Amino acid sequence: MFIETETTPNPATLKFLPGRQVMPSGTRDFATPEDAEASPLAQALFDTGEVSGVFFGASFVSVTAAPGADWASLKPQVVGVLLDHFISETPLFHGPSAGGIAVPAEEDDLLVEDDPAHAEIVDMIKELLETRIRPAVANDGGDIRYRGFRDGVVYLQMQGACSGCPSSTATLKQGIEGLMKHYIPEVTEVRAA
């Protein structure tokens, strides 16, 4: 088995591609060692002591190095953990299946409640996120979650390599906000949630 590695716009995060499916659907972000207890793989990566974040995408795992960690020594450790996991075919999550560890529905985790009168606008925002924005963000080793729409403002949450990335503010303000405003005139601003 060969695991490819790609850089991301976030210098603290590398994207690892095992050449097989990681998540059958959705994504999962592990921001703390406590979050990682749900997954043997995420837990093993945090157990290196030099990892501050793990993100599972459809076909990749993004790993964020802790402050002060050196990728020259951490990268071989991460590749070793990933190889062990995928070769042994250990389940991605603890328990009988990943079904009980599903990513929460975005509607269950809104920062601001959507106004039912704006349902059509919200549908357009979500469609734009799914078709144009999420694929681009996934290429950089992360994901983006819809967190609400109110008074012309779209609230989004960056995850994985995109969370904490020095260019994430520029991505939100210049890239995503510009795209949203172009296709959906009711959108006046995009804010990080």
Automatic annotation (TrEMBL):
- Scaffold protein Nfu/NifU N-terminal domain location, by residue? 3-89
Write the protein's name.
NifU family protein
Q: Which SMART domains match?
A: Nfu_N (SM00932)
Q: Which family does it belong to?
A: Belongs to the NifU family.
InterPro entries found in the cross-reference section: FSCA_dom_sf, Nfu/NifU_N, Nfu/NifU_N_sf, NFU1-like, NIF_FeS_clus_asmbl_NifU_C
Q: Which organism is it from?
A: Alteraurantiacibacter palmitatis
- What domain of life does the UniProt record list for this protein's source? Bacteria
Alphabetized Pfam families for the sequence: Nfu_N, NifU
